[in-house]
Amino acid sequence: MARHKKTAADLGAWLCFEDEAGQGLRPPKGRTWGRRGHTPVVRVTAAGTKRVSTAALICTKAGHRPRLIYRIHLDRGPAKGRRKGFTETDYARLLDAAHQQLDGPIVLVRDNLNTHVSRTMRELIAARLWLTVYQLPPYAPELNPVEGVWSHLKRSLANLTKHSLDQLTALVKTRLKRMHYRPRLVEGLIAKTRLDLEPP
């Protein structure tokens, strides 16, 4: 990770970590209070494959507050030949938006998802001179602070019944927006990785 840090510092760039996750209409299970002998029951009426996919970036740079930038993709159910989650073009749009918001070059660190390493994605990266990309080692979620975003988000959605994809989308957007405006939380997620991100 020191090599990524040096590159970001040398370029005067933002160091951005990227990851994606999805949430269906069935709520994550969580602990709750209930009367002794009466187990609380959350009735789920929605079924099927509908889900909200979210891609997020946690961006950090010395002397600036950390940023959480995200995009949402809706999968309204089966459709032949259509990808359920984010496509290479969707990821490129997220990076373009981040570049515009951050107003500077980006060093991107992310996992080895097939969409991230495809030929189409490599071509999209090559066309963006302000973007440098590094892959995380396989099976290293503890090095990516965005994993903490998903953990925080899913805890906040625990036991909440959503009856439609639109209702779920509104909840996810509200929770992510709250995190976006809490830079100390984002700092905590970065600190939890135990990575030394201070420039040498």
UniProtKB/TrEMBL annotation:
InterPro entries, per database record: RNaseH_sf, Tc1-like_DDE_dom
Keyword annotations from UniProtKB, A to Z: Endonuclease, Hydrolase, Nuclease
Superkingdom as given in the UniProt entry: Bacteria
Domain Tc1-like transposase DDE span(s) in chain numbering: 15-163
Molecular function, one GO term: nucleic acid binding
Transmembrane helix listed as a keyword: no
Protein name as annotated: Endonuclease
Species of the source: Streptomyces olivochromogenes
